[in-house]
Fold:
Amino acid sequence: MSARAVESWTLQPLTDFVREAAVRLVLLMTPAGQVLAQSGFSRAVDVMSAAALGAAIIASTTEMARQMKQAPFGFLSHQGQRHGIFLASSVTGRGPVVALVVYDLDVSSVGLVQLFFEQLAADLAAASPKETVNKQVLAADFERELSNSLNALFGR
Amino acid sequence: MTTAYSQALDRVTRVRGVRGAMLVAGDDGLVIAEQLMEGIKGPAVAALASSLATRLRRAMAAAGVGNSLFWHLQCDQGALLVVFSGSGVLVVAVAEADVNVGLVRLELLRAAEAAG
Amino acid sequence: MPDDIRALSAQLAQDPQSLVFLRLAELLRQRRQLDAAVRVAISGLERHPHLADAHDLYARVLADKHDYERAFDEWDMALRIAPNHTGALKGLAFLYFKVGDVDQARAHLETALKVDPDDASITQALEMVHQGVAPESGADAGAAAPAEAIASGAEVAPLEDARVFAGLEGAQEGLLLLDPAGRVLGGALKDRHGADVTDAVAAYLAGVSQEAARTAKLLGLGNWTGLAAEGGEGNVFLKQPGPEALLLVVRERGVPMGRLAVIANRAANAASRWLERQS
Amino acid sequence: MSLVNFTTREITCKIVYYGPGRSGKTTNLHYVYQRVPDQRRGRMVSLATQTDRTLFFDFLPIDLGQISGFTTRFQLYTVPGQVYYNATRRLVLQGADGVVFVGDSQARQLDENLESLQNLQSNLLEHGIDIRTMPLVLQYNKQDLPRELVLTPPELDDALNFRSVPSFPADALHGSGVFETLKGISELVLKRLAAGSAV
Structure:
């Protein structure tokens, strides 16, 4: 299964989770919808749409819980004809991480996904680097390159 | 409803050597009702029992022996015993390895009937 | 799409590195879905280019498509990887026989017979080569030409039940021995209507044993030692006679579970003795 | 919170188009979507009502290519402008790296522009962010309308642009000013990253 991580510490927990829970797609992201890692997606951009939508669902249900003066929901599950979607968030040393999971109903189940999500959450918490990364500075000529890139993007 | 469930599970847990009994939604592997001794992880039992049940059901269908009604996973430090109720609910018992299987099976079947 | 093919496809999609493609491609080949079989075989070969079985399988599919030149190359490659691969030896014998080179056909079959003197299909094929005719039966359905009959010998069950489960009650049916990847080591299964369901059941059983092992481990129950199940039409018992094998016993519903356990234990003992002799 | 990874050399930034209802935020995204080559953009996702009003947000990921050796991606979001959608606006605003405020240039819309700007300020505050530290540009949209209906850019600057951030006149429907606006916010966001203050 093709897994890819922007934040490399998420990769091993993610790969283990995909294997154990026998799921089709996983997306790890920040609550703002920034992708940290994914498994099973074929096109990078679709990953971003999925992240935006997944983060939006989490954001809106968290807000709903807040308005009801309740603790945030543990997880969200949606069951279709053949696939299930599972959404949950966990806390890591690098802040909260939201997981969006898609699984085949004849291969896995929400119970199985939930069970191994707990492991994933623990693995992510253990694997996350605690210290903040050193701030590095982008190259000085990046403004020129940015300008060129934007011009190229709009065909000017 | 809940009382009916817990009464059904009561009879299972009363069998000597049974450490917990539960009703599990077969399709999604989630707990419906449970009566467990300390240290037994209900959600894990539910998820794994339902997953094993699904796989076993397919193998048995392929072998042409029909729908599975009862199964018993024997392990060296315990056992998992499962009965299928008609409505897709699994009645699950976690037990010691030397439990009286016949008795547990009987109580699981009764519980399945009660659970509908 | 029939369920067993679907199940194998799903298993392969789950774990593209697994060897389940061998079973899937073979099943597709038997169902005459040759183009699909080619695709599965090739994608398997891309991942396992040094697996003689994969070349042998691809060659059989190619032979079914009457692409004999490439089939020859594939069987040849299988032999380079595993010089004693009886499937490839039989395959090449078939191709030689087909082009009228009886000497080469015989030579390959004789090599195969040295590797596996007990393989009846080889003896049978040798007889055919001598006589230049084929008997009616073959593993493939339909009337087989002499040459095809030789090749079809390549897919006769790899072991004969009697050898693994000799002397056991009902050894002729209802006993199945598998390796961890779900490949049949011995035995065969038929359903109530007499259809051979060995492959389909084998494909599912690997998943059952993996899940049984995981369940036992994660629930702190130690190692699993057996799985007994009652079905509406029959009872089954699953055991692990060794770390590398899985045994299934199927009996009709009238056979009590306790008796089934006894049969399963005996069969497991026979199987583990046999497995020891193999290693 | 932008995501900058120095190991894989990737930058992802979230830019939110903010502004009153019907000011043309979605139109901006549609224009960008049409003009950016296929391989540089993802699917545009719109969570809209039946009358095409944005209900939750519109979303468009675009790929800026390599900038200083970094694969740079922007995620463009719009928020619903209608006053009653404030909860959703606040959610979408979460984690934004930059904001484009799309104002409606029509004179009669001035109050709504002001109200929306104040709303932006208070929603940012709810996320613990001072609007003065957030990369922000203003766009004065619908400048193509008859002159008697709209305010000029200098007039709008006087009325709305208290912080003297970059501002751009635009006609998003036909595309004028859309690119300049995006370029303007991109520069601010990435400059801030380059300074190392926002990582």
About this structure: Residues 2-115 of chain B form a domain with the Beta-Lactamase fold (CATH 3.30.450.30). The longest strand of chain B covers residues 18-25. Chain B touches chain C at residues 40-41, 44-45, 48-49, 51-52, 55-56, 58-60, 62-80, 94 (CB under 8 Å).
